Amino acid sequence: MFRARRFVLLVPALAILSLGGGCGGGKDQVSADELVQKADQACQEEQSRFREIQGTPPANASEAADQTKALVQAAQDASSAMDDLEPPDDLQTPYDAYLEAREQAIDLMKKGQDAAEDQDSRAYGAAQGAVTKSAPHRKKLADSLGFTVCSRNAGAA
User: Fold this and answer.
1) Residue 126: which of 116, 139, 141, 138 has the closest Cα?
2) Fewest CB atoms less than 10 Å from the CB: which of 21, 40, 62, 102?
3) What would the pLDDT profile of 8-30 be if each residue is shown by its tens digit?
4) pTM for this model (two decimals)
């Protein structure tokens, strides 16, 4: 049987993610300072959306699935915005690693969404745990790039 309280636990875990998204067009070549500014801006927007989405804890599996879907979309939007940035050559490898870590977290969030839709509290909890467990790695990558907002665990991927 599905337990709504497990979904309440996922909300803070998802807040750790700070992920991102973007759309079409060429990449925007940026300096190191611009990379930090623009990535942190995307993370700020993502974290704001996460706080708004998570403002009311889900009462049941259906609401948790809907909420997780909205969180996934917010994370994908931020990742897309970041993916549109072309960092300086010396930051390309760590930046790619950060974006990959975000994508992995998004994939875990999607697994949580699927589990919620299936009312599978065990799978939901496992996805939540995996997102939480991987958060320190994403934070370390964000820190290595000089990101300040993206390295916070304030309600975003």
Assistant:
1) 116
2) 62
3) 445 444 444 444 444 445 788 99
4) 0.82
